Amino acid sequence: MTTPPNSRPSYSTPLAGHPQQTQIMTDRAVFTEAYAVIPKGVMRDIVTSFLPHWHGTRAWVLARPLTGFAETFAQLIVEIAPGGGSDQPEPEVGAQGVLFVVGGAVTVHLDGVAHVLDLGGYAYLPPGCGWTITNHGDAPATLHWVRKRYDAVAGIDRPEAFFTSDAAVAPTPMPGTEGRWATTRFVEPTDLRHDMHVNIVTFEPGACIPFAETHVMEHGLFVLEGKAVYRLNRDWVEVEAGDFMWLRAFCPQACYAGGPGRFRYLLYKDVNRHMALDL
């Protein structure tokens, strides 16, 4: 899916490299029982991981299932060198995934069809679908890969794969905001085949979440563009493009978009399932 040239967005990617020895160590990184903030400044070469059956590829792991941390999902920023990729990208049969391209372009092969995802390209990949991925370009490609074990429900079909882009989906304004707060929804919220949503939330300068949202959904938020002051539990923290936030279920959240440009983030949340009682 090719993004129209007149609406090509800009997305933050990891800084990589290493800071100078003269840089002070003070930073905004924080890890609590209710939330975590991983600022862009810590996403350097020293914290990358390499993945089995991927070649020419490295990854920054933003979230992973871990007691006291993310419980429902894993999120990675994957950087694929020219010619790199994987013929066996997903190691778990029951895992579904979303890809969102923030730099360069990749080709995803599924059921004999090649799907080119360039800047802003989005793919939903259901469990067991046997996809592969390659960077056929001459520059590195960078993408988010969100993974969740699919929670199947008797009598409800599993969702199908689809390919789209940020530019191809019109944002839905939040009621009463005159479009200053809007969500790009890649999946219809009432489609019960899906047990996770990976959306893009956009705030115009000065817009806000005007109350402390408190709900059962676990969140992963990667800031694609702009800056804001975000309320996380009892704290107000400054965040900017390239930062990642994890929010535990029921963690209060709100924000003010700081400007001068719009504030956008990629948002993961678990949805549409009964609460398990066998913990």
How would you describe this protein?
The structure is a single chain. This protein is mainly β. Helix content is 0%, strand content 46%. The protein contains no helices and 22 strands. Strands 3, 4, 5, 6, 7, 8, 9, 10, 11 and 12 form a ten-stranded antiparallel beta sheet that branches. The chain has an eight-stranded antiparallel beta sheet with strand order 1-2-20-17-22-15-14-13, with no helix packed on it. The chain is globular, with a radius of gyration of 18 Å. Mean pLDDT is 94; it is low at 1-6.
The major beta sheet can be summarized as: 10 strands, antiparallel
What sort of overall outline do the alpha carbons produce when their principal axes are compared? globular
Average of pLDDT: 94
Radius of gyration: 18 Å
Count of beta strands = 22
Q: Structural class, judged by helices and strands?
A: mainly beta
Please write the string of helix (H) and strand (E) elements.
EEEEEEEEEEEEEEEEEEEEEE
Low-confidence regions: 1-6
CA distance, first residue to last residue: 41 Å
Short characterization:
This protein has no helices and 22 strands. The protein is an all-beta fold.
Topology:
Elements: E1 30-31, E2 35-38, E3 48-49, E4 54-63, E5 74-86, E6 95-103, E7 106-110, E8 113-117, E9 121-125, E10 132-134, E11 141-149, E12 162-165, E13 172-173, E14 181-184, E15 196-203, E16 208-213, E17 219-225, E18 227-232, E19 235-240, E20 244-247, E21 253-257, E22 263-270
Antiparallel strand pairs: 1-2, 2-20, 3-4, 4-5, 5-10, 5-11, 6-9, 6-11, 7-8, 7-10, 9-12, 13-14, 14-15, 15-22, 16-21, 17-20, 17-22, 18-19, 18-21
